[in-house]
Every structure is written in structure tokens, then in C-alpha cells.
Design a protein that fits this description.
Blueprint: E1 17-19, E2 44-48, H1 81-93, E3 98-102, H2 112-119, E4 131-136, H3 141-151, E5 155-159, H4 165-172, H5 178-191, E6 197-202, H6 211-218, E7 224-229, H7 247-257, E8 260-263, E9 273-277, E10 283-287, E11 300-303, E12 308-310, E13 317-320, H8 321-325, H9 331-343, H10 349-354, H11 371-374
Parallel strand pairs: 1-13, 2-3, 2-11, 3-4, 4-5, 5-6, 6-7, 7-10
Antiparallel strand pairs: 8-9, 9-10, 11-12, 12-13
Helix pairs in contact: 1-2, 1-9, 2-3, 3-5
Length: 376
């Protein structure tokens, strides 16, 4: 007996709830002055270009969940470079000034330089070029840095959770050597993708011993080292409050060896609290989304790799912009649909969490998006 072929319908892109935005009957021109219910403007768009990554960091893509059988998004579900650029242009008209490409690991997306070149041609209504950046684990950075720079990328942020090779290999869980990431950072600096930011997610008892070694390594290098509190993003990273090292303790540990002085933010809505070394060795930053929520100034929207718009890193539901793109709608219609989404935004997950008992969740049991799906 011959088995009858079965049609397999991929369901991976249905893993998060989403709604198709309504197009208003009356179309309004974008003014670049969108604000949400809390008066927060739209300035920063983070675009995930892939849900895949070659690392299995336990705070983001633990290997017991993201194994060989995990159903990643099929290629047909991903937004094309033309679709991404089209949406980016619409968002820029609404006030976006900065675009950050994320993943997964964005450098796994084939021909990413082409997309960067397309985005680099966009300008704000005032004629200013966009600030185009990228966050990477650094594994492919050495070989791609020059082509990324040539395409129009301005800066990179590199995730680096330890300087000690054994700790680093253990955290990325694929036995990747730290020396290759350090080489990528070096090459990126050489080609001018600067100032480079280095992000360290601090987990108490796992890699907090690496705070000072990383500080010593990057002092006087021109790179800005930033320490991020271990966050409760998604549902697969086994987040526990007792593994969070508050940023104030990180600053205290650093200050004991390298005296620090607080400095003003670079711009309104910056996530990192900035500190400079008193001896002129550069600066560090701390991102305290668990212990010192900064929701009140959040001006970021996030676009998933298959075109769902999320208004918060901790969101449980998105808005399906891909359906609009592939529904033969004009840019003016899509723009008019996006505006009310931001205007209705009231997200402030971290502020609400801070006011609740330790074992309570602001999400009320809803399934939050995973870090690997939406980027940081």
C-alpha cells in the first residue's frame, strides 16, 4: 500500500496572536508627530530580519526548546527586503529616526547588505539620513564588517556575556570561542562601525564574575560596555528574580575599582543610564528594565521578521502588517492604519511589574513574545 502524500501547512507564524489593522475610511497624512496615550513619540523602529540564531544562549534561545525539531518560520513567511523597506519608509514619515536590525542573529539573513543599502537611501521628512544600526552576537562580524559598512550601516552593538572562554562557551551553548567575537569587534572598529556598544546580560551566579574583566578589557578602547539586567522576556528562559543583579550593584562593583561619575543621556528615551570613568577611560551604561523601569520614555516599536508590529518587548499580541502589504493596499492606506495603532498604545509592562508582588505577572498568564522572535 502506497502512502498518500499529505500537504503540510506551516503553522510557525501563528505562534503569536495578531490582528489585522483596520484601514480608516478617511485617510490622513502622516505628520511625524505621532504620540501614544502617555505622550510618548514614535522615534525608534527595531526590525527583526530572522528568527534563527547560531547560538543557544539560555536567557534567549535555550537549546532544550530551540532544538533540531523546532519549527522556525518558513522563508515564504518572512518579509522581503522590498517589503521591509516599504514599511520603514512609512514609519519614517510617522517620526521614526532610527532603525535597528535585529534577529535572532541578523547576519544569518542572506544578502543583508542589500537591505542595508535600501534603508540607507531613506531620509526623514527634514531630509536627514536615518541612524541605521545592527545588533549581533559577533560570530560572523569579522567577515562581514566591511561589506556592512560599505552598504551604509553606521554602528553595531555586539552581545558579549563573558570574557572568560569557558564561561562564554557555556553561555552560548554551542562551544563558540570568545576570541572570534573579540576579533569581530576589532574588525568592526577598524572599518569604522563605531562607536561600538558591547552588551552584557548579567545573570547572578552565572557570569557576574565577568563584570570587572570586561570593564578592564574595554576601558580606553572607544567601545561602550553596557550591563543589562536579566529580563523576563518570553516564557522559555527560566527567568527568576534571584538571578537578577540590580544595576546599582553593578555600578557599585565597578566604582570600587574604577571611580565613576554619572553623565546625561545622549537623547530622550535612551534605555541606558550612562556613567563615565573619572580617569578618562571611557564610559559604561546600565540598562535596568527590571529594577528601574523606563517605560515612561519608551519610543520604540518592533517589527517581527514576518511583519507583525509589537508595541512592547513584553507584548503578547501583535498587529499583522504583512497582511496589509500583501493585500494590494496603497502606502497611504497602510500609513493610515499604523497611525491609530501607536496612538492607542498604553504599554508599560515593567512599571506595572515593579508594583506587583514578586510572583505576579503583569501579562496575566498571556504568552509573551520570545526575545529571539522580536530582537532586544
Amino acid at each position: 500500500m502506497t502512502d498518500t502524500p499529505r500537504k503540510i501547512i506551516p503553522l510557525a507564524d501563528l505562534r503569536y496572536a495578531s490582528r489585522i489593522p483596520a484601514v480608516p475610511a478617511r485617510l490622513t497624512e502622516p505628520t511625524g508627530l505621532l504620540s501614544d496615550t502617555l505622550g510618548r513619540p514614535l522615534r525608534d523602529l527595531r526590525i527583526s530580519v530572522t528568527d534563527r540564531c547560531n547560538f543557544r544562549c539560555n536567557y534567549c534561545m535555550p537549546s532544550e526548546i530551540f532544538d533540531k525539531d523546532y519549527a522556525f518560520l518558513p522563508q515564504s513567511s518572512l518579509l522581503s527586503f522590498e517589503e521591509i523597506t516599504r514599511l520603514a519608509k512609512i514609519f519614517v514619515a510617522h517620526g521614526v529616526e532610527k532603525i535597528r536590525l535585529t534577529g535572532g542573529e541578523p547576519l544569518l539573513r542572506k544578502n543583508l547588505e542589500v537591505l542595508i543599502g535600501m534603508l540607507a537611501k531613506l531620509h526623514t521628512p527634514e531630509g536627514k539620513p536615518l541612524d541605521i544600526t545592527l545588533t549581533t552576537n559577533g560570530s560572523l562580524l569579522a567577515r562581514k564588517a566591511q561589506s556592512l559598512k560599505d552598504a551604509g550601516l553606521q554602528r553595531v552593538t555586539v552581545s558579549l556575556d563573558a570574557l572568560d572562554d569557558a564561561i562564554f562557551r557555556g553561555m552560548n551553548d554551542v562551544d563558540f570561542p570568545v576570541s572570534d567575537v573579540l576579533r569581530g569587534i576589532e574588525v568592526a572598529q577598524q572599518v569604522g562601525l563605531a562607536p561600538i556598544k558591547i552588551n552584557m546580560v548579567v545573570k547572578r551566579g552565572t557570569n557576574d564574575s565577568q563584570i570587572l574583566p570586561l570593564a578592564r578589557h574595554f576601558r580606553h578602547s572607544g567601545a561602550v560596555l553596557r550591563f543589562i539586567e536579566f529580563m523576563d522576556v518570553g516564557a522559555t528562559n527560566g527567568w527568576r528574580m534571584d538571578e537578577v543583579m540590580p544595576s546599582r550593584q553593578v555600578v557599585e562593583r565597578l566604582h570600587a575599582e574604577f571611580p565613576l561619575a554619572a553623565i546625561d543621556p545622549n537623547y530622550s528615551g535612551e534605555t541606558a543610564e550612562r556613567w563615565r570613568y573619572v580617569d578618562g577611560g571611557g564610559e559604561i551604561g546600565v540598562i535596568s528594565s527590571v529594577t528601574q523601569a523606563f517605560c515612561g520614555k519608551c519610543n520604540r516599536a518592533r517589527l517581527s521578521t514576518e511583519g507583525k508590529l509589537f508595541l512592547c518587548l513584553f507584548a503578547s499580541q501583535g498587529h499583522d502588517l504583512r497582511a496589509l502589504l500583501r493585500g494590494n493596499l496603497a502606502d497611504e492606506q497602510i500609513s493610515a492604519a499604523i497611525g491609530p495603532i501607536w496612538q492607542a498604545r498604553s504599554d508599560r509592562y515593567s512599571e506595572i511589574r515593579a508594583a506587583l508582588p514578586p510572583d505576579a505577572s503583569p501579562a496575566g498568564g498571556a504568552k509573551r513574545i520570545e526575545m529571539s522572535y522580536i530582537g532586544g
